[in-house]
Specification:
Blueprint: E1 2-3, H1 14-20, H2 25-28, E2 42-43, E3 49-58, H3 65-73, E4 78-83, H4 95-103, E5 108-111, E6 114-115, H5 118-124, E7 128-130, E8 132-133, E9 146-147, E10 151-153, E11 156-158, E12 163-167, E13 170-174, H6 180-202, H7 207-210, H8 213-223
Parallel strand pairs: 1-9, 3-4, 4-5, 5-7, 6-8
Antiparallel strand pairs: 2-7, 3-9, 3-12, 10-11, 12-13
Helix pairs in contact: 4-5
Length: 224
């Protein structure tokens, strides 16, 4: 077993986090090509938005001891990111873990595996992202696990302190190498253009002309 302190991402100010709440992962997806979790990790609730920093935990197949410890150590605004080391059968998160996370004001929970107690999760309302649901749960064995080490979730490496931006469309992880300001600038510009683009479509302009797809097709045929 291993327990590390959460790494501080000093570049993530309160102002920066607030600005990321104004853009969608799908908009950022027009400008970034990596850091997006596999679509199998999806929101278990509707109309959610999560922005926070990763508090990571890795567990073995049927032992959730370190999940209980991690949710007890994580702080307000953290996103609990759980690496299930390939297990897709046992639910390591259910009503009590989610209730505890909400009591500690976590921003959300992301699991590379199933959750359980979906009715209770809906009542609690804390955003939970998982690969599905399961009736069989993990147990408290105290065998192994790691907290705040590098984990893998949804096919993405996640470090303690990484920025997490997630909504109903998916989960995005951005480490300290990402130019946050550049991502925000480009994403905000894309969203600001949308009303004007829709207006042009309403006035009869076709999408392929608006997005320059026609020009790319023309250039292709000119070359071939």
């Amino acid at each position: 077993m291993k327990i590390n302190e959460k790494q501080k991402n000093t570049r993530l100010t309160d102002d920066l986090l607030e600005r990321f709440r104004e853009v969608e992962p799908a908009t950022i997806g027009h400008h970034l090509h990596y850091g997006f979790m596999d679509p199998s990790v999806k929101s278990m609730l509707d109309d959610v938005k999560v922005v926070g920093t990763a508090f990571t935990v890795k567990t073995t197949t049927n032992d959730s001891t370190m999940v209980h410890k991690a949710v007890s150590l994580a702080e307000e605004g953290d996103v609990l990111v759980i690496d299930r080391t390939g297990d897709k059968k046992h639910a390591a998160v259910g009503e009590m873990v989610v209730y505890a996370a909400k009591a500690r004001k976590l921003a959300g929970i992301i699991i590379d595996g199933p959750c359980t107690d979906i009715q209770a999760l809906r009542e609690i309302g804390l955003p939970v992202f998982a690969t599905g649901r399961s009736a069989i749960t993990t147990k408290l064995y105290g065998i192994s696990g790691e907290i705040n080490t590098t984990v893998q979730c949804g096919g993405v490496a996640v470090n303690s302190g990484d920025l997490i931006v997630a909504d109903d469309n998916g989960v995005l992880v951005m480490d300290e190498t990402v130019d946050y300001e550049d991502v925000l600038k480009k994403s905000k510009a894309s969203e600001d253009r949308e009303p004007y683009s829709k207006e042009k479509l309403d006035n009869g302009e076709v999408l392929s002309s608006l997005t320059k797809a026609d020009k790319l097709i023309e250039e292709y045929f000119q070359k071939n």
